[in-house]
Amino acid sequence: MAWSGIKRRVFISHFRGDRTEVDNFINHFANNLGIFTPYVLGANDNDEFIDSTNTDYVMGRIREKYLKDSTVTIVLLGSCTHSRRYVDWEIKSSLRQGNYTPNGLISIVLPSQNNSAHLPPRFEANWNQEHSNCYGRYWSYPTTGNQLGEWIDDAYYARSTRNKLIVNSQSIMKYNTSCKIHNQTH
């Protein structure tokens, strides 16, 4: 499938420890190439960070403030992304159905991870290696803007073509878990 050329609204989920690579991704693909319009929690110092232990409140705020206008969620995978509760909550909010159309879902491995990273459990439940009969897609870092545009288009259309494959009933992550690579919780 060729990229449609439509600039979609994309929510970027990430671990704050990968901020430099996340900013590089956004600057290159969104700002320089114009492939998508980014929505990012904590993207700059003016953003209000949602500081609450009430999970429903946090997921509602993520949906209202960041996801409501986006159509695709990209999870940028660094070494500890899989262990972060806010990433889990952002994925859960992205996959919510009912009153909402779910966001398309993609995971992309950041360059520092050499094409391999542990997946957040909620994403992993929505993916398989063959990309068959699953909602999410897992990719290495894109080599071109057109390639990323194709992946975003695929995720966008999955909202109506693959939404019956969404798995989102598991309990939310209440706390960060140990990072499998560094065995730390940052």
In short:
The protein has about 190 residues and is α/β, with parallel strands linked by helices.
Question: Which word captures the global form?
Answer: globular
* Total strand segments: 5
Distance between the termini: 40 Å
CATH architecture heading: 3-Layer(aba) Sandwich
CATH classification, class level: Alpha Beta
CATH fold-level topology: Rossmann fold
Number of helices: 5
* Helix content estimate: 25-40%
Show unreliable segments.
43-47, 182-186
Taking strands numbered 1, 2, ... along the chain, how are they ordered across the largest sheet? 2-1-3-4-5
Strand content: 5-15%
Calculate the mean pLDDT score and round it. Answer: 87
The arrangement of helices and strands along the chain is: EHEHEHEHEH
CATH superfamily: Response regulator
Radius of gyration: 15 Å
Major sheet characteristics? 5 strands, parallel
How many independent structural domains? 1
Label the structural class: alpha/beta
Oligomer: single chain
